[in-house]
Design goal:
- The structure is a single chain.
- The protein is α+β, with helices and mostly antiparallel strands.
- It has 3 domains: 46 residues; 160 residues, no CATH class; 101 residues, Chitinase A, domain 3, CATH 3.10.50.
- The chain has 13 helices and 7 strands.
- The strands form 2 sheets. Strands 4-3-6-5 form a 4-stranded antiparallel beta sheet.
- Strand 1 and strand 2 form a beta hairpin.
- Helix 4 packs across helix 7.
- The radius of gyration is 37 Å and the shape is elongated.
- The protein starts with 18 loop residues before the first helix and ends in an 18-residue tail after the last strand.
């Protein structure tokens, strides 16, 4: 039986090929190997480029920082979620204000003041929408400093506290009428119970309107609660005492009138009597020019920075004259206390602004390093084409 051959019928046995044919075949084989290697290499490069693009879009970009605060990164994902949340609140405020204006415009003459006020508010919020990308970055930079302060002080916000805050937010947003119900015997407000299942269902609907995921909104709430905790701590650290002066003043339109009042007092007339007669300051004239006890920062808004600077440089009992904001003043410091109790309105204002004052100070400190890395293409598109409400 003859042996079968695997070679094609037209194949020429190697020993029957000429040297030229053999060389040509080997050259062709090498070229085929080179082509195959090139194709494989090109495929690897294409796959690598595609994989790099996918990694950049799905991994690197979402994790890319838009800023750093003392080395702590503010991620792109958090930034974009906060921008979306802030836009939602702005659109919601615009919608509410527009509804108020529509109601007030039914009687424009009676409601002219409120109409003007709401229109101003509306303009401010519409303007805020145009700068929300920058203001949100500022907000997150502040939050990073707050988080660092909270960590130093051992302040934390638990998941349970976040959940309670979310439930309260849903109640106030979707069920405002259920918050206060008068009893039959007295007018003490009581909250109407709302089933947790209904709160959860409504919460998910609100998230849909906000264009946010649950995790993103919980981060927003956590930041807000932590700010409140740090604000409360800093408010307790506001000094309750400081430099205070007991001040009297007489306001006139000209220097000549002020000099005449000064001469009358120096000749023996009572300061209060002269003030009641000639002072044009409606706030103090009826009280004999008595301003009362004040501390730094209280006088400049009403009387100008020149007057405040002058009065705190005066000695007790000395009559002084100063021009400030186009008016002339005769001043006398009745008493001075370097460590007296601060006026209640000043103390309250300083406590309310404790966090913002601390943030201003921290950001100006040389030991705080802030890098802004936000790029224009990192700002998310606006998903709200019209004002929306929950």
């Amino acid at each position: 039986m003859a042996k079968s051959s695997n070679q094609p019928k037209d194949a020429v046995p190697e020993r029957q090929k000429t040297r030229k044919q053999i060389a040509h075949g080997r050259k062709e084989a090498r070229q085929n190997r080179i082509i195959l290697i090139s194709v494989v290499a090109l495929a690897v490069i294409i796959v690598g480029v595609l994989a790099y693009g996918i990694i950049q879009e799905l991994v690197v970009k979402p994790a890319a920082p838009v800023a750093t605060v003392n080395g702590a990164e503010i991620g792109l994902s958090d930034y974009q979620n906060f921008v979306t949340f802030n836009r939602y609140n702005d659109y919601l405020s615009i919608s509410n204000l527009q509804n108020y204006l529509d109601q007030l415009n039914a009687s424009p003459e009676e409601n002219s003041f409120l109409i003007s006020f709401y229109q101003q508010q509306l303009t401010q919020i519409q303007s805020a929408l145009t700068t929300v990308s920058d203001s949100t970055l500022d907000e997150l930079i502040d939050d990073a400093l707050v988080q660092q302060k909270a960590q130093e002080e051992g302040i934390t916000v638990t998941a349970e506290e976040v959940q309670l805050a979310i439930d309260d937010y849903v109640r106030q947003s979707a069920f405002p009428s259920a918050q206060e119900t008068a009893t039959t015997t007295e007018t003490v407000p009581t909250a109407t119970p709302i089933p947790q299942s209904l709160l959860d269902e409504t919460y998910n609907k609100i998230l849909g309107v906000m264009h946010l995921k649950d995790k993103a909104f919980r981060t927003v709430v956590q930041h807000s609660l932590l700010r409140g905790e740090v604000q409360d701590l800093l408010a307790t650290q506001v000094p309750t005492t400081g430099l205070i002066l007991d001040v009297q003043l007489i306001k006139t339109e000209t220097q000549t009138q002020t000099l005449a009042a000064k001469q009358r007092i120096e000749s023996g007339q009572d300061f209060s009597a002269v003030a009641m007669e000639v002072s044009t300051d409606t706030l103090t004239a009826e009280n004999g020019g008595n301003v009362g006890w004040v501390t730094t920062g209280q006088l400049s808004d009403r009387y100008g920075a020149a007057l405040e600077s002058f009065v705190f440089s005066q000695g007790v009992g000395t009559l002084g004259i100063v021009e400030s904001d186009g008016a002339w003043y005769l001043l006398r410091v009745v008493d001075r206390n370097e460590n007296g109790p601060l006026p209640e309105e000043v103390l309250s204002a300083r406590k309310n602004s404790a966090l913002s004052d601390w943030l201003t100070e921290r950001k100006a400190s040389p030991d705080v390093k802030i890098e802004r890395l936000l790029q224009p293409d990192q700002v998310p598109p606006d998903p709200f084409t019209t004002p929306q409400s929950p």
